[in-house]
């Protein structure tokens, strides 16, 4: 049975559609609630079965859920305010990484942007107001005075370098970026 067929059956049985159920759910304080309490209400008050109640909950949830910002909006928000000065550095790093291969993508969070190769993260860029942290994934490579262990900062990576305000990306950082990218493409045996 299609989603629309479920909605048509619910309307035939109750005389109500998603818009009416949304209003009723809001009046009961259930708009945006998890499935279990909404489905219990729909079953108890309207005699809906599991599938029909789930269909109504999904339509209420989908229409009433806050929209998560897309990747570009998240990147814009991350590099705003006091962190805006790091945007050009991030874009330069991304352009350099994309020069290594056409399989480089980004996956932004609210606090950093992951650089990914295929499905694997190989670096992150995390701006602060007065610094920029760049993390790398280079298993088996010893930490140095400059490229310190990422343990306790981000466990998905192995190393981190911090640029202070006014510092720029140099050749050594770019070498680490390339090595991280290359390591992300290696097949692991075993």
SSE inventory with pairings:
Elements lengths: L2 H12 L3 H10 L7 H12 L3 H15 L6 H8 L8 H14 L3 E5 L4 E5 L2 E8 L3 E6 L11 E2 L9 E6 L6 H14 L6
Antiparallel strand pairs: 1-2, 2-3, 3-4, 4-6, 5-6
Provide a concise account of the structure shown.
This protein is of the alpha+beta class and 190 residues long. It folds into two domains: 3-64, no CATH class; 71-184, Aspartate Aminotransferase, domain 1. Helix content is 45%, strand content 17%.
CATH topology of the largest domain: Aspartate Aminotransferase, domain 1
Strand residue content = 15-25%
Percent range of helical residues? 40-55%
The rounded distance between the terminal residues' Cα atoms is 45 Å
C-alpha geometry: elongated
Count the helices. How many? 7
**Rg, Cα atoms, Å:** 24 Å
